[in-house]
Amino acid sequence: MIESLRGGLIVSCQAYPGEPLRDPRAMALIAQSAAEGGAVGIRAQGLDDIRLIHEAVALPQIGLWKVGAGGVFITPTLEHALAVVAAGAEIVAIDGTRRPRPDGLSLAETIAAIHEQTGALVMADAGSFDDGLAAQDAGADIVGTTLSGYTDEGPTSSGPDLELVATLSNRLIVPVFAEGRIHTPEHARAAIDAGAFAVVVGTAITHPATITSWFAEAIRA
Fold first, then answer.
1. CB under 8 Å to 10, separation ≥6 — which residues?
2. For residues 83 and 65, is the Cβ–Cβ distance under 8 A?
3. Above pLDDT 90, what percent of the chain?
4. Which CB contacts under 8 angstroms, 24+ apart, belong to 110-119?
5. Which of 22, 59, 63, 207 is the most buried (most CB within 10 A)?
6. What is the per-residue pLDDT for 155?
7. Cβ pair 13, 49 in contact under 8 A
8. Percent of the chain that is helix, strand, coil (3-state, to 5)
9. pLDDT band at 161, cuts 50/70/90?
10. Do 120 and 75 contact (CB within 8 A), yes or no?
11. CB-based burial of residue 41 (10 Å sphere; 0-12 exposed, 13-18 middle, 19+ buried)?
12. Based on the structure, what is the number of domains in the chain?
């Protein structure tokens, strides 16, 4: 299944709380559109979204469950991870940083339990090179650059962290997925050129409010 994602685009179909598209049916339709456009996989948040997308789209799905908005909030516990897999995700994305987890389990214990209890694959969302290395050592099947710029280890840039993509791709054995602030096709191509196994794009494809604001701000400028 991972090989089917090589060199491809994974579309992250998520909406923020309070937005008009914060509806599992809307996310399933967006996922279907992404599949028609050439996506090789879907990333989705929330159990209802994951279930509907699993039913509607015949592509591998990376599922996650966000709890809160700070600290370890991407599928923070083993319980959350097991629920994500039960909802239909073939790959579960979890916080892959070295920060303490809310349920007291280590990253390695969490990954081992997911593998043993479900057989699903695990994508570790990392924020730095050290996170990525530790996640690989903990048994992660995939390492993503998702949290680069969103932890205390470095500033947030306006574009993708291609340096981290390149460093992880050169040093890790497991596939590295580029994710985070990939806003243009050129960014996506640059991530592949930097060594990414696959590229995950969300906002620039599936978030109309942000895309509209980019155009509106450019016109006003």
1. 39, 40, 41, 42, 43, 62, 177, 198, 199, 200, 201
2. yes
3. 95
4. 110/77, 110/78, 110/81, 111/138, 111/139, 111/140, 112/139, 113/78, 114/78, 114/81, 114/82, 114/85, 115/139, 117/82, 118/82, 118/85, 118/86, 118/92
5. 63
6. 77
7. yes
8. 45, 15, 40
9. very high
10. no
11. buried
12. 1
CA-derived radius of gyration, the chain:
16
From the number of C-beta atoms within 10 Å of its C-beta (0-12, 13-18, 19+), residue 37 rates as exposed
Listed in sequence order, the DSSP H helices in the chain are 24-37, 47-56, 78-87, 107-118, 129-137, 162-171, 185-193, 203-206, 208-220
pTM for the model stands at 0.97
Give whole-number Cα distances, 154 to 147, 171, 188, 200, in Å. 10, 20, 22, 21
Residue 204 domain boundaries: 2-220
Cβ atoms within 10 Å, residue 34: 24
CATH number at residue 114: 3.20.20.70
